[in-house]
Every structure is written in C-alpha cells, then in structure tokens.
C-alpha cells in the first residue's frame, strides 16, 4: 500500500507528523504555498517562505523516506494588496526551476474580490507561459460555489489553459461535478471537525466516481490532522473496497495528475493518462 498526500502544509506541522505519515504508508506529499497564520509584512517574507519550502521541508521529509514537493505562488488570502502581490510574483520564477517545485499554487480566491481575481489571473498567465501545472484554492464558507464558478469561467475564457493540468482543491459535493464537467481535476480536503469528513469524501467517491478526483488531508494552522487521509482509506476498506481500489484513488490518481510534471517521481501502477 502506498499513499500520496497531494495537499498539506508541513511548515505548520511537527516532525512527528512526518513520522506518522510514513508509518501510514505515505511516500510523497505536496505543499502548496499558502498563508502563514498571519499576514506577511513584506515581499521578502515570502522569499524566505519559498526558500523554506524548497530546501528545509524536502530534507525534513526525506528523513522519513517521504518525497516532499512544493507549489509556489502568492496565496489568495494575501492577494488583496496587488502591489505587494506583484513584488512577490516578480521573484517567483527564481523558485520554479527547483527540483521539487511542481507548478503554481495554491492560487485562487478567498473572498472573491476583484483584486484577488487580478492576482489569480497574473499567476495563471505565468503558469501558461511556462507550461506549468496549476493548483487552485477554492474559497471556504458560503462563497465556494460562486468562487469556483468565477475561476472556471476565467480559465475557460482564457483559451490557452489545458484543464488536464489544473486541479481545483477544497471541492465539496456541490462543486466536484461542476469542476470535472469542465474537464478539470477536483480535490477534496478532509477536516477533522468542519467541512468534508472522511465519510463524506468516500460517499462522494461512490456517488460521483473516482475519475479526476484527488483526496487530501487538512494539515495546516487550523484544526486539522494529516491522519484524516488515512481515516478515509480505512473508511473505504470498512465499506469493502480492496487494496487495489484504495490505491487507485490514493496513489494512482495523484500520480496521474502530478506526474504531468516530469519532476514528480512516483509512477502510477497502471498505464493511463488523465
Ligand atoms: Zn492549502
């Protein structure tokens, strides 16, 4: 059994969490750039953060035989200040060639403002120009549907965005269909208290099918636990799915999406393209 964690903020976690993940068969994890629990006071703080994501975390994960990958961007929670965002975007290319960086993410919307959308569009442009994968944060709270629609419309209107190479994260039952019908990948994030639970995610897998669907845990600064991913694995087993079916969701699917970036080393067990 091998598991890939497609979205986790290890900067917010202890080394003991890497050990737990390794014991639960996690072989690779991906860390999108996001909020630090506070608003950064300068562009340089983001430079330090990106350096951390591309040097310290891969080394810390490797001690537990976990491959650590990162996504780089200015996140939607700090995208309201367009001038600051542009300062950050100016040095993002320095990090994109790092051997563990998969693409631009997690970009997106937080409160669905005009400024957030401007910063989103700037970063989509950068990803398209460089042929990079995109990882998208959809807003939490009641704005999820509206924000998801806004970004889908924006990407569809762009004309040069290949939906195979874009994943919308924090999807829920009411947005998974919308995202996949437009040809994109969807990811569902599990939370221990609020939002998607392991059972809700497995219900969705059963109702809507596992194609183009990723599952991740909510390892971040809020109430969260990397083990929620493994609780979903157990929930599938409890419902009678065998290891082959479990691994198709928790290992092969991430390999198919993330493997479109040649830097991502794990390979799916099956031949196939997304
Ligand atoms: Zn995140």
Structure, explained:
This protein is of the alpha/beta class and 274 residues long. The protein has a single domain (3-258), classed as Metal-dependent hydrolases (TIM Barrel), CATH 3.20.20. Helices cover 45% and strands 16% of the residues. The protein is built from eleven helices and eight strands. The protein has helices spanning 15-23, 43-54, 56-62, 82-91, 93-96, 114-130, 144-158, 173-181, 198-208, 227-238, 243-258, and strands at residues 3-5, 26-32, 67-72, 101-108, 133-137, 166-169, 185-190, 213-217. It has an eight-stranded parallel β-sheet with strand order 1-2-3-4-5-6-7-8, sandwiched between helices. Helix 9 (198-208) links the parallel strand 7 and strand 8. Helix 4 (82-91) runs parallel beside helix 6 and helix 7 runs parallel beside helix 8. It starts with a strand and ends in a 16-residue tail after the last helix. It binds zinc ion.
What's the layout of helices and strands?
Blueprint lengths: L2 E3 L9 H9 L2 E7 L10 H12 L1 H7 L4 E6 L9 H10 L1 H4 L4 E8 L5 H17 L2 E5 L6 H15 L7 E4 L3 H9 L3 E6 L7 H11 L4 E5 L9 H12 L4 H16 L16
The site of zinc ion has 6 residues, from loops.
CATH superfamily: Metal-dependent hydrolases
Q: What are the distinct ligands in this entry?
A: zinc ion
CATH architecture: Alpha-Beta Barrel
Might you state the CATH topology name?
TIM Barrel
- How many domain units? 1
The strand count comes to: 8
Radius of gyration: 17 Å
- Order of the strands making up the biggest sheet: 1-2-3-4-5-6-7-8
Total count of helical runs of at least 4 residues: 11
Distance separating the two termini: 21 Å
Low-confidence stretches: none
CATH class: Alpha Beta
Structural class: alpha/beta
Please tell me what the overall shape is: globular
Order of helices and strands: EHEHHEHHEHEHEHEHEHH
Beta strand %: 15-25%
